[in-house]
Amino acid sequence: MPLFSGITDEIANRLDDQWDETFSIVGKLTDVLDGLDSYAEMKGGEAEAELLKLDAELTERLRHPVASPDESLTPLAEGIRFEIAACYALEALYRDTVGHPEECQTSVELKTFPIFPVRDLPKATRDAALEKLLHQLDLDSGARDRIDQIVNNSRSRLDRRRSVVDWLRNLIDLENPDRSSVKSLFDRFFPWNPLSADDVDFFVSRTCFHWFLPSAKDFPTDSPQADFLKSIGRFRFRFFSHFPTFSSFECRDSDPQLLDELESDLGLTHSEAVRWLNSSVTIEPRGEIEKYLIHDTWGHMWQGDLTELGILYDRMESLIAPMEAAEHLEVDGRICSIFDLFHVSRAGGVKFDHDLAAGYVLEWTRIRFESLLAPIIAELTADMVEYQFHLRVPDRSHEFPSSSTFGTRPTKLDFAWVDLGYFVRRLGKSAQRYQADARLRKNLTDRLCLLIRRKYGKRAADSEAIRAGVDRELDQFLARADETFERCFSVDFSDRVHSSFARMFTNLLRLQYTLNQLIDEELRRNAPKTLDGMNVLLLFLARWFLRDPLRNFWDMDETVSKIGGPMLGLVHRAEKNE
């Protein structure tokens, strides 16, 4: 398939008959998940039993054998060797992406967050281990300089976030917060809110301010409180730009003086203040704090400052927009838009470059596939952070609730299906909007005709002929684009030849099962001390994916199986100076 051309993977491009039964089982799995209306329905009854049965079958079929931590790293490309060392250096900042529990303040009693274990190695131990890793990975002083720059850049982002949250912390008496002062601050964030002081609680770390609010269901259906809570609980794609919080809080709707004071006190531009405030304030359901707080703090905050995932998150809103006349993409070394696909001859005839158009559609699709994979990798690694609670505090595991059937595993396939399935369906719907919306289609023609008249002047003087030519070529272009979209966004598992999504989800399962095999079977049972460095693996997964998102997504399962164990073994031995 052209979208995955050049990618060597048994699922991406090799459609051997041996995969027929596997795809059939994956299809049955998705049928079960599609039949559930909520996460809560995944637990108990026939659906869960069938889910576990299919999961067991697919585990045996899809997981890779994994290398043990005692094995040496096979000869690796320089890029992988560099990322291993860089991720180890960045892990030194992990604790600072949330802060020590004693630095965090809250108005509610928390059970799990205060006891979540985060290692804190002595600086001398870490520095010596990094030098040993650089030597064993055969990286020169130039690599060390680049790693130092990466760490410094992350430190700078982290310091800026902390300064914003420190500024917020100073707006309230954290040592003795009374309900009236908490509510007064909340009113600055949400001036229109009808909640009472008893309805509002908070938690603040060193990097994020969390508002804990009741559910709309706690109030009468048509009450102002229920309407308000529903309004701030509605999901919108633009909230992805608030990464790593994904919050529905929009500071441009808050008390204007809040932004003005932040800009003035910290010397920020208006756009900087908006970006930092939106990404450092979030809202949590008060009744489910234990379920989400570790995930949203230790699971996600590091992703915002220690990786570049935010670049892809900023593009997530494009998933709900159709192709636009002037969206420029790089196709075969050339920067072009849909408008650039049209040419007007000296005689006034409209010509269209169909070969370049095919490449444009594939590039448009590729960019959006890369973007929608970002939250998949982010959630995958955040779930792996949750697993560390069950791993390190097993006697309190029952106090850490989860909506997932697979809540105590490193990865959760049911959540992966819900997320990936939703994004692909939403993207497919947006991509084909011209097919369903005549007014939108007319607006595209109008825009293209306007651009053509501006560019070609007298050649485009016959507006009726130009419009007829644009309509004719655009009809063909959109019809062919729709054929590509059908192949790329189909969720029909009975046709793996044409369903990019079927193969992407199957590959995601393969990555999850391989991670579960590595972490929960090989390392936990045979070399538990190597899991002290598990956050290095999380960083590696995110950063390696970002190097070439679509290509490395297909390769991550093989990469994890071959180097995951040896990498953590190497880290462990370096820290022990062995």
Features:
20 helices; 4-stranded mixed beta sheet; two-stranded antiparallel sheet; mainly alpha
How is this structure best described in words?
The protein is 57% helix and 5% strand. With 578 residues, it is mainly α. The protein has a domain at 166-292. The strands form 3 sheets. A 4-stranded mixed sheet has the order 1-2-3-4, with helices on both faces. The protein has a two-stranded antiparallel sheet with strand order 5-6. Strands 7-8 form a two-stranded antiparallel ribbon. Helix 13 (354-392) packs antiparallel against helix 14, helix 18 packs parallel to helix 20 (549-575) and helix 19 runs antiparallel to helix 20. The longest helix has 39 residues, at 354-392. The two termini are 47 Å apart.
Radius of gyration: 26 Å
Contiguous low-pLDDT stretches (5 residues minimum) are none
- Average pLDDT: 91
Distance between the termini: 47 Å
**Total strands:** 8
* Element order: H for helix, E for strand: HHHEHHHEEHHHEHHHEEEEHHHHHHHH
Query: Strand sequence of the main sheet, in spatial order?
Result: 1-2-3-4
The helix tally amounts to 20
Helical fraction equals 55-70%
Topology summary:
Blueprint (H helix, E strand, L loop, with lengths): L19 H15 L10 H18 L15 H14 L13 E2 L16 H14 L4 H29 L9 H11 L11 E4 L4 E5 L10 H10 L22 H11 L3 H9 L2 E5 L3 H9 L3 H6 L2 H5 L15 E3 L2 E3 L5 E3 L5 E3 L1 H39 L20 H19 L1 H4 L1 H19 L6 H27 L10 H27 L7 H14 L1 H27 L3
Parallel strand pairs: 3-4
Antiparallel strand pairs: 1-2, 2-3, 5-6, 7-8
